[in-house]
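User: Design a sequence. Structure:
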């Protein structure tokens, strides 16, 4: 491994993160929060079927791409750690966690990290943090993640929320991020960035990030067949009210092809195309979202 350039006078990324693998799907992910602007631009790095890395404290951002490149050629985690240590003169200020595609994990906290600082590594998960209120933050990350039965991305954010409530970064809150990689899971199947969400500057970034994950599910997931409602009766009346309220189709004209076209046009404006899978039917989540979004002013 080539030696990284070392930046002096850099700000510490006081943060807590969880790096994990879903043993059922093989997905790899990282969730992170910090009192640091746009933490998602610095800490997480991952590649599907290879591994995931979180690098923080006085972050050496070369650790992400170098670690993934080493994992791709079959290098064990112990050797990757040795390479980091041998090529970084400020290694004692670094903190990172790595999980590979097989679920092996490692966490490292240098002696130069600001207390409280530390981490826990178990099969399929590595959790770490620095400048925390105490070890209970990392414990909450791991215990919540391992106890949760939610889908993998939600498990990561539930762990992040639990750590935040346990004290989190002792300086406060500012940003959070979630990265989950899956082969062909990105937009249009053209990348592995299945979920890549960031809150760069917010007084409650973890809550905001959980909301963004809900929107991601709404916008990019196709509905289950049982969630498709026939457009007649009460459902038809609700949709006609929405279309009339937006000036796209008069309710008195009833449901016809013009109404169907107007609904699809509205769905395109509101990024709901993935949920418009059959004419004459509407996904229940899309309908509820449109009603919330376009509720009449009272």
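Assistant: Done.
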């Amino acid at each position: 491994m080539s030696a990284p350039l070392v930046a002096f006078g850099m700000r510490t990324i006081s943060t807590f993160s969880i790096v994990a693998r879903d043993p059922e799907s093989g997905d790899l992910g990282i969730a992170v929060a910090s009192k640091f602007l746009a933490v998602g631009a610095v800490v997480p790095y991952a590649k599907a079927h290879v591994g995931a890395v979180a690098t923080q404290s006085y972050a050496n951002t070369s650790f992400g791409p170098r670690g993934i490149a080493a994992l791709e050629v079959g290098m064990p985690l112990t050797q990757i750690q040795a390479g980091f240590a041998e090529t970084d003169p400020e290694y004692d200020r670094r903190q990172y966690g790595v999980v590979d595609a097989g679920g092996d994990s490692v966490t490292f906290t240098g002696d130069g990290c600001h207390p409280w600082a530390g981490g826990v590594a178990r099969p399929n998960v590595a959790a770490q943090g620095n400048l925390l209120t105490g070890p209970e933050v990392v414990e909450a990350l791991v215990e919540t993640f391992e106890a949760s039965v939610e889908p993998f991305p939600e498990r990561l954010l539930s762990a992040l929320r639990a750590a935040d409530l346990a004290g989190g970064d002792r300086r406060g809150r500012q940003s959070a991020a979630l990265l989950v990689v899956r082969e062909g899971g990105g937009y249009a199947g053209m990348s592995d960035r299945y979920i890549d969400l960031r809150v760069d500057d917010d007084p409650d970034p973890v809550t905001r990030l959980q909301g963004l994950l809900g929107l991601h599910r709404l916008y990019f997931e196709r509905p289950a067949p049982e969630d498709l409602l026939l457009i007649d009766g009460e459902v038809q009346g609700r949709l006609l009210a929405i279309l009339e309220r937006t000036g796209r189709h008069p309710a008195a004209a009833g449901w016809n092809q013009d109404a169907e076209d107007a609904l699809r046009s509205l769905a395109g404006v509101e990024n709901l195309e993935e949920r418009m899978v059959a004419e004459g039917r509407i996904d229940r989540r899309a309908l509820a979202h449109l009603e919330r979004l376009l509720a009449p002013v009272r």
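Residues 205-220 form the longest helix (16 residues). The first strand starts at residue 15 and ends at 21.
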